[in-house]
Design a protein that fits this description.
With about 170 residues, the chain is of the alpha+beta class. About 35% of the residues lie in helices and about 15% in strands.
């Protein structure tokens, strides 16, 4: 067994088992919205227009998704209110992620359609991914393995705490 290392990441097992099968027709975003008070939903924030949740299979620690509550596929189907709330969430959660993780940068955007990398095509959502210089290290480059150094539970607790602090400070 010398010559290689084992990286334990049991939360990936369900993803790997179902990858490419397309057998699960339910929308994980809609399911998370229904159960938004349950920590297992990974919902960080919800209001009457949008939901913000952690990506269950993050590219980096703090990888979040912002989606309208409505199950819609296309950008042009967003209402002005949904657009405004999504934009506000980009700003507020970028600040929260900066406070929690101190990243060097961010990727912010959407994968529209399977060819663009969308794992869920039918519920429009946007990603904010914190980035650090050198975050694609040898594990990813050579071993095709991404190391996420913080648990989703811990990330959820920290982001919820910080977003409350930020919203309270903006009222003053």
């Amino acid at each position: 067994m010398s010559g290689y290392s084992i990286l334990w990441s049991p939360w990936r097992a369900q993803y790997v088992k179902n990858a490419g099968k397309g057998s699960d027709k339910s929308c994980f975003i809609c399911e998370a919205i229904k159960k938004h008070k349950d920590p297992e939903s990974l919902v960080v924030y919800v209001n009457d227009s949008i939901v913000v949740l952690l990506n269950k299979y993050p590219y980096n620690s703090g990888h979040i998704m912002i989606a309208p509550l409505r199950h819609i596929k296309n950008l042009e189907d967003l209402t002005e209110k949904e657009w405004a709330e999504i934009t506000k969430a980009f700003v507020n959660f970028k600040k929260a992620l900066e406070k929690v993780f101190s990243p060097d940068g961010f990727n912010i955007g959407a994968n529209l359609g399977r060819a663009a990398g969308a794992g869920l095509e039918d519920h429009l959502h946007f990603h904010i991914v914190p980035r650090w210089a050198g975050d694609a290290n040898f594990m990813f480059t050579i071993g095709h393995t991404k190391v996420i150094p913080q648990s989703l539970d811990e990330t959820l607790k920290e982001l919820k705490k910080v977003i409350v602090e930020l919203s309270e400070s903006s009222k003053n």
